[in-house]
Specification:
By secondary structure, the protein is mainly α. The protein has six helices and no strands. The protein has helices spanning about 1-10, 15-30, 35, 40-60, 65-90, 95-115. α2 (about 15-30) packs antiparallel against α4 (about 40-60) and α2 packs antiparallel against α6 (about 95-115).
Length: about 120
């Protein structure tokens, strides 16, 4: 049973999307100016990594699944707001912001379906 849960995480599109966005964000946040690396970069990095952690917990701790899915949704919303701020502060180009936003919408749609039990 544990093997099946682990296998499910690796193959699930939401885990793949979140992993890919995590990698992309971590690579881009390292390029933020020094003055923002410990402010906005840290917030963005924490939000995406906490999102990933909560999704893992939702699979592993099935009795508290809805709690961790809601926590994931909160982290996704925080990430959405932080990225908008990053774009407004010119830490991300419009094209980079557009890419990340599209990914967040897709992840949000997947998370919403999971929350509804589809």
């Amino acid at each position: 049973m544990k093997f099946e849960k682990s296998k499910k995480m690796k193959q699930s599109p939401i885990f793949i999307k979140v992993y890919d966005l995590s990698k992309w964000l971590l690579e881009h946040s390292q390029k933020f100016p020094k003055s923002q690396r410990f402010v906005m970069a840290k917030r963005v990095e924490n939000a995406i990594l906490d999102l990933q952690d909560n999704l893992i917990k939702a699979v592993k701790l099935s009795k508290k699944q809805s709690y961790f899915l809601i926590a994931s949704d909160i982290e996704l919303e925080k990430l959405r707001k932080y990225l908008r701020l990053c774009q407004d502060l010119k830490l991300l180009t419009f094209k980079q912001y557009e890419y990340a936003s599209k990914e967040i919408v897709e992840i949000g749609n997947m998370l919403g379906k999971w929350l509804k039990g589809e």
